Amino acid sequence: MKAKTQKSGGGGDGPITIKKYANRRLYNTATSSYVTLDHLCQMVQNDVDFVVYDAKTGEDITRPVLTQIIVEEEAKGQNLLPINFLRQLISFYGDSMQWMVPGYLEQMMGVFTNNQDNIRESMQKTFGGMFPFGGLEEMSKQNLAMFDNALRMFSPLNAGDNAEKAPAPTGDAETLEQLKSQVETLRKQLDALSESSGKR
Fold first, then answer.
1. Would 1 be classed as within a structural domain?
2. Is the pTM of this model over 0.90?
3. Which structural domain, as residue segments, surrounds residue 87?
4. Is 183 exposed, middle or buried (0-12, 13-18, 19+ CB in 10 A)?
5. Could you tell me where the DSSP H helices lie in the chain?
6. How confident is the model over 157-197, as pLDDT tens digits?
7. Residues 89, 87: Cα–Cα separation, whole Å
């Protein structure tokens, strides 16, 4: 599978440094120019790696800035995150299972991204850049269902009981196997689609 690799940009070995000043202006040290959140959004889409620091304190504020980009895009009507997913994600803040969620979501997004790359490559070879949106929509639904199942799996059990006294959950292993099976099924569907497209 083809995985995206972030470019450092600016001819350097590391990520580009963006400084955020008290007036909320963002300064790209690689180009010596002020930029906006839209510029940073485009850099992300172009796989250009960067980090954002508070110009006064030197604190790494990359995460809140990236989160702000998502908020801005959602406000523009780019509704990428389902409401139910957002509610479930918020419910994990402060939960004892919170530490497991980031790694799992990162892994699942990696699988989704790699599958998207394979779909695009296959359709570009077959249709010259045009591809059936129905197939992508179905794959998106499957991936969102997998995210939803994952969050349900990590939902706290017996939240009101003492963690040490609570019996070990017996359904998590089975649910994990179901998720693995879904991922494998999705991969087989993508492989079959690639093969059928190549024969046309």
1. no
2. no
3. 83-199
4. middle
5. 37-45, 62-75, 83-91, 101-127, 133-153, 172-199
6. 444 444 444 444 445 566 666 666 766 766 666 666 555 54
7. 5
